[in-house]
Amino acid sequence: MAAAPTPAAVADALQRAAARYGTPAYVYDLDRVGVQIGRLRCALPPGVQVRYSVKANPAPAVCQAIAGAGVGAEVSSAGELAVALDAGFRPARILVSGPYKEPGLLRQLAALPEALISVDSVSELAALARSPGGARQVLLRLRPDYPIPGDMPAGPSSRFGIPLAELAAAAGHVGRTVTCAGFHVHGGSQILDPVQAARQLSDACALAARAAALLGVVPAVLNLGGGFGVPYAAGDTEFDVAKAAAALRSPPAELPSATVTLELGRYLVADAGWYLTRVVHTQTFGGNPAVVVDGGIHHRPDLCGLDLARRGRPPLLLGPQRSGTTPTAVLGCLCLPWDILAHAAALPALHPGDVLAFPAAGAYGLTAAPAGFLGHPVPAEIALAGGALTLLPPLQLLHSQAPVPAGLP
Predict the structure, then answer these.
(1) What does 139-186 look like in DSSP terms, one character per residue?
(2) Do the Cβ atoms of 229 and 191 come closer than 8 Å?
């Protein structure tokens, strides 16, 4: 397993990135991504496969690094599928999920019969069985009927997946054009307790076994989601992958030949990302010192509702370090009262020109943000590998360009 870059080496690279490319900016440490993949491989039982959730970070350099390490992909749109294919993910290791597959995506999939499709409802399965395009392999996504841990649970009250009570209705749509290759179960995400994560994986296996018995199928693939968390807050501990993976060492007897797959996004890329922003003014906020920076939540959102502005680890001050810290608010550049990157981060006295690097910014960042709001420039994205910095192409929208209907400007 590759060694993780030292904190001093990463800080030096971040400072060089800010000086060379300006701020605000995102920096993605590809060596760190490799370390996370290595940890997984050391901890998972032989034969367990991993798919990267491209939605977490679709930056081409990040996807290429993950594909080059032999990991599969999970995508949810035609744009993400194009990114995955361009990055080098093999079609046979791609899973297409989500409650809606747009026509452009289905056209792409017609040419990729080896790709798997996760079906979210009986209605979608029926539509897929009727649609042209040849035979397709599908995973039936099951709605968990057990308690779900994590910050974003998707259990019995979730909108996703087919409840077991509706599974019998799916049987009539599986046949000549649609083959049930197995099941897809995803519960909570951002789970930091490995015991809870292990229980979720065990419960997902048991649910899939019940579904297999109801349909009379022997699944070839079993996607158990994952939801492994990363330490966003100062008091969070590193997730123990080996302890969670223990649940995969004894699969249910009803699933003797299923290839088990985990679907992970933030675990692979969150800690590899840094959001750089520069102090432009000093201010006060809530009775404490505050600074205004040239970035904000239009670049670094809190899409998953983790309360990053209050719970997140404080940003790193780049350059010469200063002694002493004071609770300091980091205020964004938008004319919105809630554009706050940190409410009371422990920081030394700050001055205009200082550069702050927010950690754990590699997942659900720029493409999850309202970057077009107020028309500010889109931040640069920079890859860091082996100490070398590479400016990535400007952010492009992932959607396919649809023709403009006649009569519209």
Answers:
(1) EEEEPP-S---SSS--STT-SSSB-GGGHHHHHTT-SSSEEEEEEEE-
(2) yes
- Helix (H), strand (E), coil (C) string for 319-360: CCCCCCCEEEEEECCCCCCCCEEEEEEEECCCCCCCEEEECC
Three-state SS for 191? strand
Rg (the chain; Cα; Å): 22
3-state secondary structure 42-59: HHCCCCCEEEEEHHHCCC
| Residue 101 · residue 118 · CB < 8 Å | no
- What integer pLDDT is reported at residue 401 of this predicted model? 40
Domain residue limits, the chain: 31-269, 271-391
pLDDT along the chain (409 residues), means of 10: 78 97 98 96 94 97 98 96 96 95 90 94 91 82 84 64 91 84 90 92 92 91 92 91 89 80 96 98 95 97 92 95 95 96 96 98 95 92 97 72 35
Write the burial class of residue 402 (CB in 10 Å: 0-12 exposed, 13-18 middle, 19+ buried). Answer: exposed
SS3 29: strand
pTM: 0.92
Neighbours of 399 (CB within 10 A): 13
Give the number of other CB atoms < 10 A from CB of residue 111.
10
Helices (H) and strands (E) in the chain, counts: 11, 17
The answer to whether 395 and 36 have CB atoms below 8 angstroms apart is no
In a 10 Å sphere around its CB, with 0-12 CB exposed, 13-18 middle and 19+ buried, how is residue 154 labelled? buried
User: From CA 367, how far away is CA 58, in angstroms rounded?
Assistant: 8
Q: What is the pLDDT of residue 348?
A: 97
Question: Candidates 3.20.20.70, 2.40.37.10, 1.10.3720.10, 3.30.420.40; correct CATH number of 271-391?
Answer: 2.40.37.10
**Rounded-to-integer distance, Cα 84 and Cα 337, Å:** 37
Of 3.90.1150.10, 3.20.20.10, 3.40.50.720, 3.40.366.10, the CATH number of 31-269 is 3.20.20.10
Position 154 scores a pLDDT of: 55
Which uninterrupted H or E stretch holds 19?
helix 7-21
